[in-house]
Design brief:
Blueprint (H helix, E strand, L loop, with lengths): L1 E5 L5 H10 L5 E7 L5 H5 L6 E5 L9 H4 L4 E4 L6 H14 L4 E5 L13 H16 L3 E7 L10 H7 L1 E4 L11 H13 L9 E5 L7 H12 L4 E4 L2 H9 L5 H15 L12 H4 L8 H7 L6
Parallel strand pairs: 1-2, 1-4, 2-3, 4-5, 5-6, 6-8, 7-9
Helix pairs in contact: 1-7, 4-5, 8-12
Length: 298
């Protein structure tokens, strides 16, 4: 029986990965979380073949037991202490004899030495570390912008019938955590993960969408007019961070928005890797996503 360890199991990607893996009978799934008593951890209890274990990558000693005897593992982490925590997880996986590690990274467009985007720079360093260790087979999924980020507009849409946007009519191929989790599960279940070894693979959604499209779909689904408010990077940063906003944050937003405005995150310019498409074709459209999450906007 294959033992698979999933870090960050209570996050959107981790949850959907565990959900898909739990449909398989001949696997033992270990779902790692920093708090087994949280409401998000409780969601995992309904899945078959899943053992929920409290572990924290900032405390490497907590990783020893869950990783022992595992053949494959997936690492997905929140932004806080991303670099340190993922390197801890990689090292623990190597010491416990894990054969293959799947990392959730970020888009290839941002994986540049000169990027100003902090989390992208950290993902780049982590992938570089995996390449240089040479002690474990690995692959990286590089998802496009998460569709779930749009859920952050929920309160503004509920109460103001509008939401802030710096993208407007510019499009990108948003990808859902469901499609990321589905793809990740298929890689982890593969009988021949060597085919993925050392590869960093882009993963985009099935269509190009904009915030204008989001407003149109929401208006149709909710039966009232929803609009987007086009803001500059400075205005949006001020809205999100208030007086604590820094010039560095604004520069990061400008870099990210540049990728969108230059159509670098579209289906055409950031296509899903062919190796991934041979496994599964992402299916979650914007309309499907709104249907599944409509209560967040009502």
């Amino acid at each position: 029986m294959r033992k698979i360890v999933i870090s960050g199991a209570t996050g959107n990607i981790g949850f959907h990965t565990v959900s898909e893996l739990s449909k398989e009978k001949n696997v033992e799934i270990v779902a790692l979380t920093r708090d087994t008593n949280s409401s998000k951890s409780k969601r995992l209890e309904s899945f078959e073949n899943v053992t929920i274990v409290e572990a924290d990558s900032s405390k490497p000693e907590t990783l020893i037991s869950p990783l022992k005897g595992a053949q494959v593992a997936m690492i997905v982490s929140p932004w806080d202490n991303l670099l340190e925590n993922e390197i801890n997880f990689i090292n623990a996986s190597i010491r416990q004899g894990v054969e293959f590690l799947l990392k959730i990274s970020t888009t290839s467009t941002m994986m540049r030495e000169d990027t100003k985007i902090g989390y992208a720079r950290k993902h780049l360093l982590i992938e570089k570390y995996l390449k240089e260790t040479g002690e474990i087979a690995w692959a990286a999924l590089r998802p496009n912008e998460f569709m779930e980020n749009r859920l952050g507009f929920g309160q503004a849409i509920k109460h103001q019938n509008s939401f802030p946007s710096m993208q407007g009519e510019n499009v990108s191929a948003l990808v859902s955590a469901y499609d990321i989790g589905k793809m990740a599960s298929l890689i982890l279940l593969s009988e021949n993960w060597e085919v993925f070894n050392g590869k960093s693979m882009d993963l985009s959604g099935p269509e190009n969408v904009s915030d204008k499209n989001l407003a149109e779909v929401l208006s149709n689904k909710l039966g009232r007019s929803i609009e987007y408010q086009l803001l500059s990077e400075e205005e949006l940063a001020k809205l999100f961070y208030g007086d604590s906003v820094t010039s560095q944050t604004v520069e990061q937003m400008k870099e990210f928005n540049g990728y969108i405005s230059n159509r670098l995150h579209t289906v055409e310019n950031l296509p899903t890797d062919k190796l991934l498409l041979d496994l599964y074709q992402p299916k979650m459209t914007l309309e499907n996503f709104i249907d599944e999450n409509i209560e967040s906007f009502k």
